[in-house]
Amino acid sequence: xxxxxxxxxxxxxxxxxxxxxxxxxxxxxxxxxxxxxxxxxxxxxxxxxxxxxxxxxxxxxxxxxxxxxxxxxxxxxxxxxxxxxxxxxxxxxxxxxxxxxxxxxxxxxxxxxxxxxxxxxxxxxxxxxxxxxxxxxxxxxxxxxxxxxxxxxxxxxxxxxxxxxxxxxxxxxxxxxxxxxxxxxxxxxxxxxxxxxxxxxxxxxxxxxxxxxxxxxxxxxxxxxxxxxxxxxxxxxxxxxxxxxxxxxxxxxxxxxxxxxxxxxxxxxxxxxxxxxxxxxxxxxxxxxxxxxxxxxxxxxxxxxxxxxxxxxxxxxxxxxxxxxxxxxxxxxxxxxxxxxxxxxxxxxxxxxxxxxxxxxxxxxxxxxxxxxxxxxxxxxxxxxxxxxxxxxxxxxxxxxxxxxxxxxxxxxxxxxxxxxxxxxxxxxxxxxxxxxxxxxxxxxxxxxxxxxxxxxxxxxxxxxxxxxxxxxx
Amino acid sequence: xxxxxxxxxxxxxxxxxxxxxxxxxxxxxxxxxxxxxxxxxxxxxxxxxxxxxxxxxxxxxxxxxxxxxxxxxxxxxxxxxxxxxxxxxxxxxxxxxxxxxxxxxxxx
Lengths: 474, 108
Prior knowledge:
heterodimer, A: alpha/beta, 3 domains
């Protein structure tokens, strides 16, 4: 770097301010009360960085930039304001894809310019490595995120799509991609190597996400989050910009931590996840164990009586609750029970929903105080053990006792909630089928488990009605 | 040499990220993801240079699309994060301001 002019000083100062505000913004997320303000400050940081960049002496024409900024804001604003909270995972996948497209395009432009196709300037080995990694992570994230989006939006089947020799094909693609990357670093002017990396990364994004089932989406989204960050970081290396490196590293770290947490919560090793083996459907239901007991069911009237006189109730929601849009009627039920002197808490499993923390957002949207949300499995289990009633709404695998008791179960070892330790358990469930993993749930046939069959919203609605009727009857 | 410095920055920033993000409670994991996503829309900075520099028509067009995508990412990312964080309402300890207490009343 040469001596900095005053213009460059201003640019660097804006980048420094942005980096500091980003870090502080993320730190504010450690406390719910400060989070909103902190993130608004981070948005200001972004504004500083953009304004600073506009001062860059290399920029000669502003018209395209301005049109691009306006168009982007016009697409982003309605998207963000209209999206439903249940659709948050799709939205995040979509947003990852957009960021990654930008990183990939910048990589291509930079390579074209630097390799002299449409300009001049040297292309060192280090720069070639940065550009190669940028398009590798970028392109992988683009197609991977679109695939994840398609699966979450149910444009593509949520079931794993597999074909024979899939792992071999993927491995070959990975090896060739890294081979091409190696060649590019060795010979930076080799355009064919650069575009091979780009093309194979697009293919890999598709082939790595397709075999993954909808229930594993929390891990996939976290991993894509991490890759999108690495792509941004590599962009920073390529264009020599620290704020990009920092912001990308923060996202890379965040996505990585979340994927670790998710894989731990599902009891899968991280290596198992990285290599895509987790797409394989778990071995068929662990077989008929002894006599098949029939689950007992209960009518909403009887359930309402128990709830009305319960002093402690724990609700365990799963993605089924979100699908049924039952969060609002859930709050209504909660308020009724509280009015009668009972206490209601929610036990939220780390992998409940389609992305990390998804159900917390959905319940908060319904106006439920976050003080009522138990997000730690051990804490929640202590509360459940002292509860009169545990209500399970659209959840299955996260309350399957086999995870603790049956070593042959594919769920064995996964940290789960223990609703059976409550005095009684109500399970609200559409029908008698198995959960997403296709594993039988012996919880349903336990002595203190009572089934309430039907749509979550409908069943909760009738519970609310019955509790109200109890009051009027007195 | 410059690239070594960049590596320093990358590793240190990643380290800071690890330390901070590990302390984010599971309650806020979804906003965390949308927040990091919005922040990494900083690729916008690279896109702006690509679109505004005189590198030939193809580069300008690619740069323009990069600006559109990155700007979408940034706008949508920060707005949705804000929308989500505004929904999290918590119990307040006694002694906090009335104004804030009013906000914690369930919406309806």
